[in-house]
Design goal:
The chain is of the alpha/beta class. The chain has 24 helices and 21 strands. Strands 1, 2, 3, 4, 5, 6, 7, 8, 9 and 10 form a ten-stranded mixed sheet that branches. Helix 1 runs antiparallel to helix 2 and helix 2 packs antiparallel against helix 3. Keywords: Hydrolase, Lipid degradation, Lipid metabolism, TPR repeat. InterPro entries: GDSL (IPR001087), GDSL_Est/Lipase (IPR051058), SGNH_hydro_sf (IPR036514), SGNH_plant_lipase-like (IPR035669), TPR-like_helical_dom_sf (IPR011990), TPR_rpt (IPR019734), TTC5_OB (IPR032076), TTC5_OB_sf (IPR038645).
């Protein structure tokens, strides 16, 4: 009997150990899904992760309390719970709490420090995340921790004075990880990313960094586990693109698209093919002619430093040509969709045309007709076929500004780009209450107002006319310099002052308190307005057609510099009031839902067309959120209060689909312009699906209002009630999000992937210099 009892105890101990192993395995499986599962619909991945997380948490909760009694056991339990909760891409406060408890219970648990650092990183506290990684490393060398530290340092390098030094630290830590396991593909991948970051960020534009990056990616590909990583294929293709290995780049982008359709790789293929075809067509069109003869004839008189040998394009060798100089004239500037490099069509003294690609120089420095002296040129003969189309042309690449003499003179420092900065002089905003910064307040004929307490109470500490407790999306995107205490991720935003409401600026110009309209942009948005002119006309709101007219008038009167418009970003969000009003019973619409949506889209298309004619080249259009979920639905007859009003959301989704189609057509319809589509509906639905992950305790009721869902009475009106913590609510009042919601939306639009904003995010759009 005693032997039997001992066997049972041994089996019981084994079973207890097995459950911990099973939970650890379930947590690891979650992260494998995160890193290798890329369905066509990104929301499928979110659902799968949520489902598997729930199962893993259930397994964790099945561990008997007796197995969680010691500090070490409790630490492991807290660590695993935090790790499981943190698998989602966005910051999760509950995950941070559990991981913090884990490291307090067991400060030697390196994996918990690693997970805590990753979690804190997501909320923008980069310094604290770095501290966590360093504490994890203090427990002993670890390639995973070194890789995460390397990644974090690349993020920390953005926008700081010593960024070159920080990027070098990132490279050093990636190399340390490799030294621990020379066959680890992830460590090589990290090194490739660090070298690629150095190429762009430090201003060196060093060709050797690209070659180092490519070599690292090739070593990463030798690890079978890395073959499921679509980012590896994408990044390797990006390096090949800049090395002008176009065929490899196209193949790499196609491979990335097969691994993860959401990566937008197919759009990279499209842009590259468009560029190649444009270059070929331009070269054919300028093969010979009187203009070339005239341009080339002036080059004979140019004096050259005796240390350089004069050459024409046909005498160059493949690769770097030391102590050689090519003289040429700029035939034309090649406009294209990418930010870098700059492309020019140049003819040499023998009247041969070639493609010149230039890095590290501002896009307004070299002009048509300029004379260029290209020192130590890097020559490449492009010759390959893709999809039954052949491409053949001669190309010179310039990596450093020192390699170019412009009209016989060296370039000055201010003509070079030290690193890709945000190229945004101003922001012009059009729309409704989601963007209104106070226009309605200055419109004395308007009854749709938010110029009374407690609006503005959480940030401005007074009403500003914004229909929320603080800032809106437009504020968050532009507001950095005003508030240096803002959370870390906002320190990456554009960094220009908040845009004034148009009517406020107009009053100041008229009364002489300011001499001119603001140079940083203007906010034309009016709460209550829509795409349809009749929407809330009785409330005295400024219809979007009138907002456009205000903008057009300022441009025609030269109150806004046309050149600044080219360096601006245009924000547009409207339509919520149109669709909500469709369901208000007092004035039944004359159109069926589909025709009504088409009428809205017609107005949206016209607005985009008109602002493009004024010179706007970067257009950010934001979808409607889930209007059927706003607390104000309680005002509508037959609308449910225990769930969203799906009839409204169906109409919203139809409109959003049409709106995205308009945005996709922008590059084709308006060459040189770029449009981005912010998928606000999908972003907000993520918040609603897993509210605690985003810091919400309530995603149904308004924080401020009265009645069912606090949606029957506007915030601040008689009888209203207000919650204690507005930023734990998705909705501030009966129709509008809280500042916290706007902050999360802004972050998703600024740095989000293509499931949130497409084809590029606002950060990339703000860095763009090629849309003039």
């Amino acid at each position: 009997m005693s032997n039997y009892g001992e066997v049972n105890k041994e089996e019981e101990r084994g079973g207890r150990e097995d459950i911990w192993v099973k939970v650890e395995g379930a947590a690891d499986d979650l992260y494998r899904i995160r890193d290798s599962y890329f369905p066509a619909n990104p929301l499928d991945k979110v659902s799968k992760l949520q489902h598997e997380s729930d199962l893993a948490l259930k397994l964790l909760d099945s561990i008997h309390p007796e197995q969680r009694r010691t500090p070490m056991q409790r630490a492991m339990h807290e660590y695993l719970k935090g790790k499981i909760l943190d698998v989602v891409p966005d910051y999760n406060k509950e995950a941070e709490d559990h991981l913090s408890k884990a490291v307090k219970l067991n400060p030697y648990l390196a994996d918990a420090w690693l997970c805590l650092g990753n979690c804190i990183w997501k909320k923008g506290d980069l310094a604290s995340a770095r501290n966590c990684f360093n504490l994890a490393l203090s427990k002993g060398p670890n390639k995973r921790i070194l890789c995460q530290l390397s990644m974090l340092e690349r993020s920390m390098a953005q926008g700081v004075d010593n960024q070159a030094e920080i990027v070098e630290e990132s490279i050093r830590h990636a190399k340390e990880a490799i030294s621990l396991d020379v066959k680890d593909g992830n460590s090589w991948y990290n090194l490739g990313n660090a070298c690629l970051t150095s190429f762009f960020m430090t201003g060196a534009w060093d060709h050797s960094r690209l070659l180092q990056s490519l070599k690292a990616y090739q070593n990463a590909e030798k690890d079978e586990r890395m073959k499921e990583n679509p980012d590896l294929y994408y990044n390797c293709a990006t390096v090949n693109k800049y090395l002008e290995n176009y065929e490899r780049a196209l193949s790499g982008f196609e491979a990335a698209a097969l691994k993860d359709p959401a990566l937008n790789s197919i759009d990279e293929v499209r842009k590259m093919v468009n560029l190649l075809e444009k270059l070929e067509n331009l070269l054919r069109g300028h093969a010979r002619g009187k203009r070339l003869a005239s341009l080339a004839s002036s080059l004979a008189a140019v004096n050259l430093n005796s240390s350089y040998k004069r050459a024409t394009i046909d005498l160059l060798s493949e690769g770097l040509n030391k102590a050689v100089a090519v003289l040429g004239k700029v035939v034309l500037i090649v406009k294209h969709e990418n930010v870098t490099p700059l492309y020019y069509l140049v003819c040499d003294s023998s009247q041969l045309c070639f493609v010149l690609s230039v890095y590290g120089i501002r896009n307004d420095v070299i002009k048509e007709g300029d004379q260029l002296t290209l020192l130590d040129p890097c020559y490449h003969y492009v010759d390959f076929s893709w999809k039954e189309k052949s491409y053949k042309f001669k190309s010179i690449r310039v990596d450093f500004s020192e390699q170019v003499l412009l009209n016989g003179k060296a370039l000055s420092p201010h003509q070079a780009i030290l690193y890709p900065a945000y190229n945004v002089q101003s922001i012009f905003t059009f729309g409704d209450s989601i963007f209104d910064a106070g226009n309605n307040h200055f419109n004395k004929n308007c009854s749709a107002q938010a110029d009374f307490p407690p609006y503005g109470s959480s940030f401005f500490h007074q009403p500003t006319g914004r229909f929320t407790n603080g800032r809106t999306v437009a504020d968050f995107i532009s507001d950095v310099l005003l508030d240096i205490e803002m959370v870390a991720y906002l320190a990456e935003f554009i960094g220009i002052d908040l845009q004034k409401p148009y009517l406020e600026a107009q009053i100041e110009v008229i009364n002489g308190s300011r001499k001119a309209y603001p140079s940083n942009g203007i906010n034309f948005a009016s709460a209550g307005s829509g795409f349809l002119q009749e929407t809330n006309k009785d409330l005295g709101v400024i219809a979007i057609q009138e907002q456009l007219l205000q903008f057009q008038t300022l441009v025609k009167q030269n109150q806004i510099d046309r050149s600044s418009i080219q360096n601006s970003i245009f924000f547009l969000e409207s339509g919520s009031n149109d669709i909500f009003n469709y369901f208000v019973p007092f004035d039944p619409p004359k159109l069926d839902p589909d025709a009504y949506v088409q009428a809205m889209l017609k107005e949206a298309a016209n607005l985009i067309d008109q602002i493009h004619k004024l010179g706007v080249r970067r257009i950010a259009v934001f979808s409607l959120g889930p209007v059927g979920c706003v607390p104000a639905r309680a005002l509508l007859p037959h609308a449910p209060v225990n769930r969203c009003y799906e009839k409204i959301n169906v109409m919203v989704k139809k409109f959003n689909t049409g709106l995205e189609s308009l945005v996709k057509d922008i590059p084709t319809k308006y060459p040189g312009a770029v449009g981005v589509y912010g998928a606000v509906y999908d972003i907000v639905q993520r918040f609603r699906a897993v509210p605690t992950n985003y810091g919400f305790s309530d995603v149904e009721n308004a924080c401020c209002g009265y009645g069912a869902l606090r949606g029957l009475v506007q915030c601040g009106k008689e009888g209203y009630k207000m919650c204690q913590n507005p930023n734990s609510f998705l909705f501030w009042d009966y129709f509008h999000p809280s500042e916290h919601t706007y902050q999360l939306i802004s972050q998703a639009l600024w740095v989000g992937d293509t499931s949130r904003i497409r084809p590029i995010n606002l950060k990339y759009l703000a860095s763009s210099t090629s849309f003039h």
